[in-house]
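User: Second chain of the day. Same drill as before.
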Amino acid sequence: MSTRKLFTIGIALLVFAAIKLILLDIFWQQSAAEQTACDVRQGCTLPNGAYVKFSGTVSAKTPFSVELRNVAAEVGEVSVSFAMKDMDMGFNRYPLQRSTDGAWQADHIRLPLCVAGRRDYLADINIGGQVFQTAFSAE
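Assistant: Same format as last time:
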């Protein structure tokens, strides 16, 4: 392959990467999370009146469930994702589905595994674009 073709391919790859970064910046906007103290294992009420509870063994090794109550049906998307302070945990958003009794629920949730062995997680609870973040420890 000629040097000119390699140069052209290199420039095309750089342009593609730049376009991808611009699109990610435009479309990957996440609302600023409101920090809230909440014991998600016992269940608690968020500042907007929604009640959240994690059921089962909250661990990176076993699946558990998340349930939200007192959330209107019209809110749109309800989801939960997990992170750690100062550590990228990848994409792990779990959508919650509205059940017949009016609660929003997701089953078989798995925490992202931390290769450093940490167990201090942050849960981002998204209710119709309003995000509440609470810290918790996994077993």
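The domain at 34-137 is CATH 2.60.40.1930 (Immunoglobulin-like).

User: Great, on to the next one.
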